[in-house]
Amino acid sequence: MFYDGAQFPAEYEGNALVALKGSWNRTEPTGYKVVRVPFKDGRPEGYYENFVTGFWVSGERRAEVWGRPAALAVTRDGALLVADDTGGTIWRIAYTGQRDAAQKDERKKDEHK
After folding, report:
1. Is residue 15 part of a domain?
2. I need a surface site. Which of 29, 32, 49, 73 has the fewest CB within 10 A?
């Protein structure tokens, strides 16, 4: 999913957020997180960053988890929703830091066009 909300810092705009549901049948468990893939000029920059972790509790041969992120969505206010199909939960992730005031004003102008 490409982030198009107005809540997170400007550098998140147009970046991909990806739910890595996790493996249940691998020798070493992997996934169980949400990552951000930065894009520049419409292309991925070649790396990813962990965005939400902690679903994998422990286990080296068999993952012990309390959740598996399965799907993502953005709310009208720009928060991120993460559907967890193991815990049966939808997590809402909101950014509470400051955004650049000029960017917010510019977005409001664009919304009214």
Report:
1. yes
2. 49
